[in-house]
Design a protein that fits this description.
The structure holds two protein chains of two kinds. Chain A is of the alpha+beta class. Chain A has eleven helices and four strands. Chain A has a four-stranded antiparallel β-sheet. In chain A, α3 runs parallel beside α9 and α4 packs antiparallel against α6. The longest helix of chain A has 43 residues. Chain B is of the alpha/beta class. Chain B is 34% helix and 25% strand. Chain B is built from seven helices and ten strands. In chain B, the strands form two sheets. In chain B, strands 6-7-8-3-9-10 form a six-stranded mixed β-sheet, sandwiched between helices. Chain B has a four-stranded antiparallel β-sheet with strand order 2-1-4-5, covered by helices on one side. In chain B, a hairpin with a 2-residue loop joins β9 and β10. In chain B, α3 packs across α4. Classes of the chains: A alpha+beta, B alpha/beta. At the A-B interface, α1 and α8 of A face α2 and α3 of B. The structure holds adenosine-5'-triphosphate (ATP) and magnesium ion.
């Protein structure tokens, strides 16, 4: 470290940076940027988590609809329902196949026709729900069931899963754009604050420059101060964002898993790992922006 | 040591009507350990010439050698390092307002990374020399013009520069202080420091008959 940096530590603020690079506006603005960045980061990770759990569930869900389930099947070995059940049981890719009971059926259709479906004499299909554990598509199974019991339909969640994936990607793109903009604004804030500090200290800098101070030393003094202010602001912003994130996570918990009380410890571990990086990034932005700004400005001196 | 070869200086913001050049075709040489008065009427270009010597301006044309180094070819870092070997007393002092007298004088030594023990010894001694040891903790705005000038002089010589450049160093001093200052400068000169002093003080020039560079209207009209 440069001699006069060390001297400044002994003797306080040599250039008068403490007043020229004020400890108010810069940390507050950088803090606000970090707050936004933390929310964007939380949003991006929440999207990823939601997408992952939804995609898993939705893509794997199979719903099999068997019209006239009590009719004999194609081979005349029993009812269509029994034939389909046997086929599902024999298929290793199908798990948890369950026939909906009459009560469950009634509950499903009650909003539309009300009361007891059987009493209306409707010919209701049988419905089997299952999970698809296979890696490929379920088209072959659909063809097999169609043969056993004409009219049987399989619905899978694959198409929905794909839509969710697309939505997630675009949301994550938005979050990334927010992070980028927030970083650029933070850099601009540091640059403007540094330039105003330079303007205030113009005479002082010209004097130490005339005495032979190295430009790297001058830039390093500014960068040190800017780094400290950006770091302090970003720490504040991130710490303020943490409880907000915990609250948002709690709001979203019905979609993501069992409801926990709102607490920092229920934030996704990835987010907890990434949050401390925000102040580090802010410090880096402060350091590099101040260095570039000061070195550029010093070019005007002889 | 110092060598000017057909040097021209033009200020960027100078008026365009005719006399745009502050220095025109200036050539001279100062030997190692030499002493020169720099004289001439106000506006003749004395400060401009000194600025070229202490690397605060670049010539529009010509070749400049300072401390046996080609000034035009320096990297910015080397220019900074060369500046550390040149002591400058500015016409307007240029003390750092937020530092007290002691720290102002200590600045060049600390830039040169001298140890604090040596800084203390040398700064205290030089402050005694300029008669301001008792004012070492005063800030520039608490000092009179003459006192500020003496602090500026102390700062210029404290790091024992190879070259001392002084612009009107006696401008704000009474006769006794001016004599005292000349004693200090001639002592440094005897120890090998090359010295250039710009002044209006004819009595001083007469009292110390060193060779003289004289400027008029940006041209060197006398050398010797
Ligand atoms: N920064 C500048 N920009 C434009 N013109 C300048 C600048 N500094 C000096 N000049 C002009 O250059 C000429 C020489 O100025 P300089 O300061 O060198 O004179 P000087 O001999 O030191 O005068 P004085 O004895 O009054 O200090 C003057 O005409 C002045 O107006
Ligand atoms: Mg002058």
């Amino acid at each position: 470290m440069a001699a006069w940096c060390m001297m400044a530590r002994h003797r306080g603020d040599l250039l008068g940076l403490r007043s020229a690079l004020s400890d108010r506006l810069l940390p507050v603005l950088v803090g606000a940027m970090s707050f936004l960045a933390a929310l964007a980061l939380g949003g991006a990770l929440a999207c990823a988590n939601l997408a992952q759990s939804w995609q898993g569930d939705t893509a794997a869900a199979l719903t099999i609809q068997i019209p006239q389930p009590a009719d004999p099947d194609a081979g005349n070995d029993g009812t269509r329902l029994a034939a389909v059940q046997r086929a599902l049981a024999a298929n290793h890719d199908v798990q948890d196949a369950t026939v909906l009971t009459t009560a469950e059926m009634n509950r499903l259709i009650a909003p539309w026709i009300g009361g007891d479906a059987a009493s209306l004499g409707l010919a209701l299909p049988a419905i089997i729900t299952a999970q698809w554990a296979g890696s490929g598509s379920s088209d072959a199974l659909a063809a097999q069931l169609q043969q056993l019991s004409p009219g049987t339909v399989i619905r899978t969640g694959a198409i929905w899963a794909q839509r969710v994936a697309t939505l997630t990607t675009s949301l994550q793109g938005c979050a990334l754009a927010v992070l980028l903009i927030v970083a650029l604004v933070a850099a601009a804030v540091v640059a403007v604050a540094t330039r105003s500090g330079l303007a205030q200290l113009r005479d002082t800098i010209e004097i130490v420059h005339g005495l032979g101070a190295l430009e790297a030393d001058i830039a390093t003094r500014f960068a040190g101060r800017a780094t400290w202010l950006a770091l302090a602001g970003a720490l504040g912003g991130t710490v303020l964002a943490a409880p907000v994130l915990a609250w948002l996570a709690w709001l979203a918990s019905p979609f993501t898993g069992p409801a926990h009380p709102a607490s920092l410890f229920n934030l996704p571990p990835a987010l907890l790992a990434l949050l401390p990086l925000l102040p580090a990034c802010a410090a880096l932005i402060g350091w590099s922006t101040a260095q570039i700004t000061v070195r550029g400005w010093l070019r005007r001196l002889p | 040591m110092i060598r000017f070869d057909d040097v021209w200086l033009r200020y960027h913001h100078a008026a365009r009507d005719g006399e745009a050049e502050a220095l025109r075709a200036v050539s001279f040489e100062i030997e190692e350990g030499g002493f020169r008065w720099l004289t001439g009427p106000s506006g003749a270009g004395k400060t401009s010439l000194l600025k070229l010597i202490y690397l605060a301006e670049h010539p529009a044309r010509g070749r400049i050698e300072i401390l046996n180094t080609r000034a035009n070819r320096l990297t910015r870092r080397d220019a900074a390092l060369l500046r550390r070997r040149i002591g400058v007393v500015y016409q307007d002092f240029r003390l750092l307002p937020q530092l007290d007298a002691y720290d102002n004088v200590a600045l060049p030594m600390r830039l040169a990374r001298r140890g604090e023990a040596q800084v203390k010894a040398d700064v205290t001694e030089i402050l005694r020399w300029v008669g301001l040891a008792h004012r070492m903790h005063a800030r520039p705005d608490e000092l009179s013009g003459g006192e500020q000038q003496r602090i500026a002089i102390a700062r210029a010589v404290v790091a024992r520069p190879r070259l001392l450049v002084a612009d009107e160093p006696t401008g704000n001093l009474d006769d006794e202080q001016a004599q005292r200052l000349m004693l200090l400068i001639t002592a440094l000169n005897k120890l090998g420091t090359t010295v250039v002093v710009a002044t209006h003080n004819a009595a001083l020039v007469e009292h110390y008959p060193f060779p003289r560079l004289s400027l008029e209207n940006g041209r060197l009209v006398h050398d010797g």
